[in-house]
Amino acid sequence: MVTRQFPKPSELLEVMSFKKPEFNGKKRRLDSALTIYDLRTIAKRRTPKAAFDYTDGAAEGELSLSRARQAFEDVEFHPGVLRPAPDVDTSVEVLGGPSALPFGIAPTGFTRLMQTEGEIAGAGAAAAAGIPFTLSTLGTTTIEDVKAANPNGRNWFQLYVMRDREISYGLVKRAAEAGFDTLQFTVDTPVAGARLRDKRNGFSIPPQLTVGTILNAIPRPWWWYDFLTTPKLEFASLATTGGTVGELLNSAMDPTISYDDLAIIRDLWPGKIVVKGVQNVEDSKRLIDSGVDGIILSNHGGRQLDRAPVPFHLLPQVVREVGSDATVMVDTGIMNGADIVASMALGAKFTLIGRAYLYGLMAGGREGVDRTIAILRDEIERTMKLLGVSTIAELEPKHVTQLHRLVPLGS
Ligand SMILES: Cc1cc2nc3c(=O)[nH]c(=O)nc-3n(C[C@H](O)[C@H](O)[C@H](O)COP(=O)(O)O)c2cc1C
What we know:
The chain contains 17 helices and twelve strands. The longest helix is centred in the C-terminal third of the chain and has 33 residues, at about 355-385. The protein is about 45% helix and about 10% strand.
């Protein structure tokens, strides 16, 4: 039998300690996000459908992206016990310089569309966190303005080699002059992937007003206020001809780029050069043998070839074949710091985040990107402590099993 008593006022008072209310709406909103998926939910609520879908979407049936995310969820970690790791050091050296965390910000095109602060928010947040920021050829902020937002930190430039080679070479020179230390040469975009959401939404650059967009704008006045009261949304380094991003990519990109272009860029670029969008062992070996400083295993966040290999699945085999000294990096599908820990354990030297950064940006501009980085940092530190490792270098393949759902027939 439970014996009951009359509640004592002193005990009642103890449980009635109310939290101080947070009057800053943005801070309240961002603090409520505990995961990158929470930031995505906020982003979706605050951003017009066409802009959100441009960011969130991938190519065709979006299978490359969902498989890449699934592959990270299918990780099994193997912790060691009674190995105290009260403090963890998350810093790494990559491509000749430091990063306070084992990830950097991936290049994304048309970033001020997501939220007006765009690349400035990304570069500023990267500077504050001590991680590299990558500016896209299709960026909406100039090379020089990114440098001003991250004057002492590491800036990387992503290059598309375009039909008009001189435009690409001009950008390479400007990025070098501005002190960017690494060039990412993207090679997975001979033509644009079929981004069906953009087609269905009638999304074009520059954005056009239709009855649909106006109706969709009603619950999202802040985005439209920003859009209408800040400098015109346009590519900082490319002339805009109109059309969807896919149409624009197809008119600007050259489907014939080859190793010859890599050699020319290598000669023009004084810093480190990495090839982004590598998707098999053979290419990885050839590129590392040809003397590039690193490769990024990536399928462009699933935005190019659908049903492409999952970059995280390729990682162990590629590292085995090219050697553990080569700088092999990975992106696509990272939504949790534990995904980054798993990648580092399987031999990646670094990782990149695309949408995770953009969801933060859409959820709250610069502070939203800070929140993205804080969430990932927390997850990385906690996962390392739970695994019983104190430094990134201590992470090893033995800490991770990749469970496979989709296994090739006959294996
Ligand atoms: C909205 C958006 C725009 C992108 N633009 C570019 C780009 O201009 N150049 C490029 O090399 N990759 C681009 N990417 C690919 C990213 O650099 C990165 O490979 C990808 O986002 C990683 O996957 P994740 O979004 O799952 O992290 C873009 C990705 C997104 C989501």
